[in-house]
UniProtKB/TrEMBL annotation:
<dbReference type="InterPro" id="IPR020045">
    <property type="entry name" value="DNA_polI_H3TH"/>
</dbReference>
<dbReference type="GO" id="GO:0003677">
    <property type="term" value="F:DNA binding"/>
</dbReference>
<feature type="domain" description="5'-3' exonuclease">
    <location>
        <begin position="3"/>
        <end position="272"/>
    </location>
</feature>
<dbReference type="Pfam" id="PF02739">
    <property type="entry name" value="5_3_exonuc_N"/>
</dbReference>
<dbReference type="GO" id="GO:0008409">
    <property type="term" value="F:5'-3' exonuclease activity"/>
</dbReference>
<dbReference type="InterPro" id="IPR020046">
    <property type="entry name" value="5-3_exonucl_a-hlix_arch_N"/>
</dbReference>
<dbReference type="InterPro" id="IPR036279">
    <property type="entry name" value="5-3_exonuclease_C_sf"/>
</dbReference>
<comment type="function">
    <text>5'-3' exonuclease acting preferentially on double-stranded DNA.</text>
</comment>
<dbReference type="InterPro" id="IPR008918">
    <property type="entry name" value="HhH2"/>
</dbReference>
<dbReference type="Pfam" id="PF01367">
    <property type="entry name" value="5_3_exonuc"/>
</dbReference>
<dbReference type="InterPro" id="IPR002421">
    <property type="entry name" value="5-3_exonuclease"/>
</dbReference>
<keyword id="KW-0238">DNA-binding</keyword>
<dbReference type="GO" id="GO:0033567">
    <property type="term" value="P:DNA replication, Okazaki fragment processing"/>
</dbReference>
<keyword id="KW-0269">Exonuclease</keyword>
<keyword id="KW-0540">Nuclease</keyword>
<dbReference type="InterPro" id="IPR038969">
    <property type="entry name" value="FEN"/>
</dbReference>
<dbReference type="GO" id="GO:0017108">
    <property type="term" value="F:5'-flap endonuclease activity"/>
</dbReference>
Length: 302
């Protein structure tokens, strides 16, 4: 079997690293926190050692709350806005991200976002457009929709950390949620997701959403069936869905990950050694990253 492309949700991992490692446990001599950088580099090293990819790309949020999604569902991620349209991010994490990106560039790992799109959309486009197999790495449940056994796309779900990855194929998605991976976005639109500001259909939870999809198909098929008096809806469920027609029409494209984002040119080939070793050494010395950088370099060589 050919070796996979690791398509990494960088914000998902560096937020997890930041919150998982105390700032005081990872600092420079001057007391500057580097916990997110060290944790991220160690996660990458572990993924490279265990998954043995020959390609690796890190996806970024060029736009964490795209206007086209907000226009459809105004509450989308609204609770996470700090001011204007700026995401609420701890200042000590915000300062670490540019250093992390410099470190990835010195190693030779491409990391990019695309204007008007989230990291999820970059990952969706990589999953659909790059040669298989593709393993998407994220703690974001929305990306279960990308799982496709026939194409060779899996989600390495790190909701409990990289050390406890769930290696998701279609069978795992079905066992976990009761729906096929291709219907996960429809399932999410009905269920809702408070973490993304998506209210869902009032009174329709995971089990009801899964049963509806099993019987009728996706949101479009379910809404179409509402006009059929013989469709077999329970009266209460029909009423709830009918009241949410407009919401569902707008929420479904918000929940669906884009797969046609115009990606920049990039070389996904995983280097066997750092592309810019002097730059990496300087960064490691300046930011007290020697241990994490060494572990990642060793993983590349291994």
């Amino acid at each position: 079997m050919s070796r996979p492309l690791l398509a990494v949700d960088a914000p998902s991992l560096y937020f997890r690293a930041f919150h998982g490692i105390p700032e005081k446990a990872a600092q420079t001599a001057a007391g500057e926190p580097v916990n997110a950088i060290r944790g991220f580099l160690d996660m990458l090293a572990q993924l490279i050692r265990t998954r043995k990819p020959d390609r690796l790309v890190c996806a970024l949020d060029a736009d964490w709350r795209p206007a086209w999604r907000v226009e459809l569902v105004p509450s989308y991620k609204k609770h996470r806005v700090a001011h204007g349209d700026v995401e609420e991010v701890p200042s000590s994490l915000e300062k670490q991200v540019p250093i992390l990106l410099e470190t990835l560039a010195a190693i030779g790992i491409p990391a990019f976002g695309v204007k008007d799109y989230e990291a999820d959309d970059v990952l969706g486009t990589l999953a659909h457009g790059q040669p298989a197999p593709v393993e998407v790495v994220s703690g974001d449940r929305d990306l279960f929709q990308l799982v496709d056994d026939a194409r060779g796309t899996r989600l390495l779900y790190c909701g409990r950390g990289v050390a406890k990855l769930e290696d998701a194929d279609e069978a795992l998605v079905m066992a976990k949620y009761g729906v096929e991976a291709r219907w996960y976005a429809d399932f999410a639109a009905m269920r809702g997701d408070p973490s993304d500001g998506l209210p869902g259909v009032a009174g329709v939870g995971e089990k009801t959403a899964a049963r509806l999809i099993e019987r009728y198909g996706g949101v479009e098929q379910i809404v179409a069936a509402l006009d059929d008096p013989d469709a077999g809806f329970a009266p209460g469920v029909r009423t709830k869905l009918a009241a949410s027609r407009d919401y569902l029409a707008k929420a479904l494209p918000v929940c669906k990950v884009a797969t046609d984002v115009p990606l920049p040119e990039f070389d996904p080939a995983l280097p066997a050694s750092p592309r810019h070793p002097d730059a990496l050494l300087a960064l490691a010395e300046r930011w007290n990253l020697a241990g994490s950088a060494r572990r990642l370099v060793d993983a590349l060589a291994g």
